[in-house]
Amino acid sequence: MNNLIEFFKRAFHIIVLAVLLILSVVMLGKSLAFNDYRLSRAVQSVVGPIQKSGRSMIHRFHLGPENEALVQQNIQLLREQENMFIVKEDTILTEMSMPDSTNTKRVRLYDYTYAHVIFRTTDRAFNYMIVDKGSKDGITRDMAVLSPQGVAGVVTDVSPNFATVRPILHPESRISAVVTPANQNGTVIWEDNDPRVAYLEAIPQHSEINIGDSVFTNGFSNIFPKGLFIGTVKEVQVGNNASFLTIKINLATPYTDIYTVYLVENTFKAELDSLKANFKNE
User: Fold this and answer.
1) Cβ atoms of residues 114 and 71 within 8 Å
2) pLDDT tens digits, 192-216
3) pTM of the model
4) 231 lies in a domain?
5) Residue 259 zone, left/alpha/beta (φ > 0; ψ -120 to 50; rest)
6) What is d(CA 194, CA 123) in angstroms, rounded to the nearest whole number?
7) CA distances, 221 to each of 104, 106, 154, 197 (Å)
8) pLDDT tens digits, residue range 121-180?
9) Which domain holds residue 249?
């Protein structure tokens, strides 16, 4: 026992030095691990978004052809809807026809194409969109513009490769509409500086309009086919003019998240406009 005590007395400084050396190595390792962790987090915070963007671009690159094919399929379905045609009846009877027979045929009134939105605003007093197709692609002024969810706007200006769209989110936008099931016709306007809502005006006060009722295009203009979805009724109030209601609607088109649009051409628009040009404004 005395020998052991003497050994510790002689080796005390060596033992203390060894213990301190071991503690230093342990603490240094922990410090390096923590610094490495912090460095890793810092690098990840910088590289992570770049990697995420890269993956997103690769994902879009691979899905691009698939998305284009889906858009083409949607266009084919839209082109075959009943509101795309005029149904004409030939009621001229001949010796070979039965007394109660009629010959009907469908004449295409509207046709579809598509484009991608490359610029848009939603938070200004006058909002616009630009799409990546123009006159070289057959785009003309006054073509209706739809999102996958509903009505989006109207083409106002066209260059060879691009076109400007005036969305509903514009104080000069006017869209003839009908609210169902009341079957009352009015006009959709925008004046609330909110990209999610608009107003349906000129609806008589006696109309039975309820929250949740649907608003569609009524087909009275030469631009929009009948029956395109615009939105749903959000609020109903008696307006300043006691003869009409103030109706706020939730717009179907998500303007802050719109990338692909469908453009609708009225194939008889020039002929119809020439007839309307002869109307007297009295």
Assistant:
1) yes
2) 789 999 999 999 999 999 999 999 9
3) 0.72
4) yes
5) alpha
6) 8
7) 25, 20, 12, 22
8) 999 999 999 999 999 999 999 999 999 999 999 999 999 999 999 999 999 999 999 999
9) 175-255+268-276
In a domain, 240, yes or no: yes
179: phi then psi, degrees, rounded to nearest 5: -105, 130
Collect contacts of 232-240 with beta carbons under 8 A, ≥24 apart.
233/179, 233/200, 233/209, 234/197, 235/211, 236/209, 236/210, 236/211, 238/205
Q: Which of 26, 47, 63 is the last residue of a domain?
A: 63
Decide: helix, strand or coil at residue 233. Answer: strand
Q: Distance between CA 169 and CA 230 in Å, rounded?
A: 12
With respect to residue 125, please indicate whether it lies within any of the assigned structural domains: no
DSSP, res 225: P
At residue 124, the 3 state secondary structure works out as coil
Amino acid letter, residue 107 = V
pLDDT of 245 reads 93
d(CA 62, CA 199): 41
Q: Given phi > 0 = left and psi -120 to 50 = alpha, else beta, which region is 199?
A: beta
Q: Which of 128, 131, 169, 174 is nearest to 253 (CA)?
A: 169
Query: Would 188 be classed as within a structural domain?
Result: yes
The CATH number of the domain holding residue 219 is 2.40.10.350
Domain count, the chain: 2
